[in-house]
Amino acid sequence: MSEAMLERxxxxxxxxxxxEAVRVGDAVVPAERPGLAPAPEGHAEPPRSYRQHRxxxxxAERRLPRGDLSPFQRSFRHWFxxxxxxxxxxxxxxxxxxxxxxxxxxxxxxxxxxxxxxxxLLLLATFPRQPRLYMYGPKxxxxxxxxxxxxxxxxxxxxxxxxxxDDMLTSVRRAQAVFDSGGVLGIAPEGxxxxxxxxxxxxxxxxxxxALRAGVPIVPVAITGxxxxxxxxxxxxxxxxxxPTGERPTREVVTRYSATAWHAIRAMVDEDRDEPPPGRIGxxxxxxxxxxxxxxxxxxxxxxxxxxxxxxxxxxxxG
Length: 319
Hints:
The chain is an alpha/beta fold.
């Protein structure tokens, strides 16, 4: 998300989706509401900085990208998406989740490194059924064009946005609707798929902004093993320590939280290394789930992330 977006007015009743709102610079963030229910067994307690605010959940669901769906349709399509994803990912790979106790029982934003389009299927296959998982993206001018896009739109899982970034206000409101409807949002802050295991591209600042604006924790997620689709290869989903938010989303604060999340994921993947290419079927399966752009995978392999020493770091702190 550009600095211009951070400066863009975001007032109006949509900002709080039914709750009171307070102005933070040019942005509007929801007011707090008291009390957190105890976390169910197997879930982490939500950080105290989470800005709970009174919302009309039915209104929030109508403001989701697929607000036209009935509760039954939304539940069925989410179940179908999870079932298909589980069959594909856990049949083809050996999948292991590390630190599953860090899954949140309340709205949260999960930042993950992006090695393949399979990452979305992987998260759907491994995340808890509740809170419901939505994915920020894909970056499509019209998600209703093309068979793959139409299927993703049918599921109700994506929160799409235009590659021209001319609909950012709408996408920010949709992300807020995810949180206000009780869901969690997955986002790849790198903004693109990259090739190398153990590497991490610079983060765009939109993820930290969305979390700070909503007052939800940022949970770093490190994915290992999806750069190549090796049959029965080991795939890890590692959850880092949740990063509580609670500060105003000024430019400096957004930059600091982005760096904190980047370093958290970079540290988890630091010892990962590229595996040799799989056989012909594995290479074909990899290409099915990726679009490397002009120059293919070879050209994409030239894209490397920064050295951790070159990424300004300041520990996030709740205000």
